[in-house]
Amino acid sequence: MKKFNQHILVILLLFATAYGVSAQGIPRNSFRPANPRGNQRFNQMPNPSGMQKIQAVKENFLDQKLQLTSDEAGRFWPLYRKYQDEVIEVRRLKRLNNSDAQANGREQVKKDLEYDGRLVEIKTRYNQEFLKILPPEKLSQLYKSEREFNDELIRKINEQ
Q1: What is the pLDDT confidence band of residue 101, given thresholds at 50, 70 and 90?
Q2: Which domain of life does the protein's organism represent (predicted)?
């Protein structure tokens, strides 16, 4: 099983490097200033098919860790995908806000805090929905497994 997980992570890393994606789905060059000619590559999302492949590997990893029953899986995965979509969108907006060189730093900080609040609200709302499907032990394992996946992905990317 450990070998299988290693193979999955290697495949994931290949996709991540091929599409210029970091662990959070952020283009690698997202924190570089804009090109003087106006090319704002950092505002673009990575190739959707690459993100879908990474998401599929992540879901496979989580599925193995959680050992969901068929009933749990049928109810959990659609909800989890909606959760991921909402979190990714808020993180994208937050990243764009932080990449803008605004004259009003206070407004930028205010927006940043608003995005953090939206993330907490999303996580709180979905936590309640997840508990309707999964027992608390599996929900706890979900959060631990997500961190494990992201930490391992970051470690592998940094090794390259």
Answers
A1: low
A2: Bacteria
